[in-house]
Design brief:
Blueprint lengths: L1 H6 L20 H13 L2 H6 L5 E7 L6 H14 L3 E4 L5 H14 L5 E5 L2 H8 L1 H9 L7 E7 L7 H4 L7
Parallel strand pairs: 1-4, 2-3, 3-4
Helix pairs in contact: 5-7, 6-7
């Protein structure tokens, strides 16, 4: 890929293999997904008041309480709307930020979901300022939804969880 020679990274398409995902109308999971769907339709409202059309959700709780299922449904839904899902994993955050900027240059209006599973582990590995830079730095782009998950919300500093629009 041309990106690999430019910034030392590559992007690959992966197949999302999941069990059947059942939907339960009125459940908290369903309400979160309805709110996310409403977000995708609100781009003009954001730009009308001079804000970047972006939002973040922090999903937290013990293992087995549905965080990954919500993430899988969000990925499925953004792909259905011809968007892109980026999974932030074991690559340095600086490479992710560069990739996000490059994708936005190529696809200026495409919906993007950035997934930070186990954000507490990312912070431990790369340190909090690096992760904060990734969330709020130069890579801030329009039409972008960030979803982070953690089993340990008590490990997260208020700078992660209490800043408006970083994570709701």
């Amino acid at each position: 890929m041309p990106w690999e020679t430019q910034v030392g990274m590559g992007v690959k398409k992966i197949t999302l293999a999941v069990d059947d995902i059942y939907e339960f109308p009125g459940s908290s999971q369903d309400n979160i997904l309805l709110e996310i769907d409403k977000f995708w339709g609100s781009g003009e409202s954001f730009s009308g008041i001079g804000l970047t059309h972006r939002r973040g959700y922090l999903l937290y709780g013990p293992p087995g309480h549905g965080k990954t299922i919500i993430i899988q449904r969000v990925i499925r839904d953004v792909i259905k709307r011809k968007g892109i899902a980026l999974l932030i994993s074991d690559r340095p955050p600086s490479l992710f930020s560069q990739a996000l900027s490059l994708i936005r240059d190529i696809e200026p209006d495409k919906s993007i979901v950035c997934i930070y599973e186990d954000i507490d582990a990312l912070i431990e590995k790369y340190d909090e300022p690096t992760v904060l830079s990734m969330l709020d730095g130069e890579a801030q782009v329009d039409h972008c939804l960030s979803i982070a998950s953690t089993n340990y919300p008590e490990k997260l500093d208020n700078r992660i969880v209490s800043r408006p629009r970083r994570f709701d």
